[in-house]
Amino acid sequence: MSDSAMEGEFDDVASWTADAVKQLGPEHAIPAGCRGSASPAALAWLAEACELRAGTRLLDLGAGVGGPAAWAHRRYAVQPILIDPMPGATSASARLFGLPVVTADGLAIPLQSGSVDAAWALGVLCTVTDKVALLKELRRVIAPGGSLGLLVLVALAESLDPMPEGNSFPRQVELDAVLDEAGFDVREQTAEPDETPLSWTERADRVEELVRSAHGQDRVYREAQEQSRRIGVLLESGQVATRLVHAVGRRP
Ligand SMILES: C[S@@+](CC[C@H](N)C(=O)[O-])C[C@H]1O[C@@H](n2cnc3c(N)ncnc32)[C@H](O)[C@@H]1O
Prior knowledge:
Rossmann fold, Methyltransf_11, transferase, methyltransferase
């Protein structure tokens, strides 16, 4: 992804989203803060697969605006730590949810080895070129036997049209291969379960509408919208599809 498109989608729009949620009310924060296509059903699947429970130290890598980590904190009383390289995203998640958050690249996670019980990376792998390096870093920081939960868009078509800037969607065989190379055994994979409830999408849509009315003429906003439109076309036309993955690192 070009720097400007990356900054637009994950930096500036993240700050605008936090501004809009502040105006609309806290019940909008989690739906608007899930920017990697995770529905409540997908989050519940990942939480149960990873056996989250009260006190689980959960790293959310590429946490974005923080909706998924905040959801896990509310529903499962996990102790989340959020990491994202975009300062706009980390300041938005800190403002919205007040959870521990660090601005850092997933290729050099500033945590000690084995220091978290589980990790999520939702909608992140498709934005990273060196997927094996990112997964190896995740494996390093997850305690032995701990779970990795992923939401990944996999490519089903040979060539994708339109292609969102900077994304690299793995094919299913490539996803399986990079997980294996990084030392993870896949326990289970599924397509995204069930539909998103209307009350959730309505709250996310209200935030989106407020951001559009405030920033709709901004170049950065229009670039981010174009990115989302392209991903929407790829999903609706069946060129890419969602995979939820539960994997566990092999013991050395
Ligand atoms: C599609 S968003 C998903 C955000 C969040 N996980 C969610 O589901 O709402 C992808 C996120 O990955 C982050 N990201 C991109 N490259 C990264 C990297 N090298 N390390 C960690 N995060 C990265 C982006 O800043 C962005 O917040």
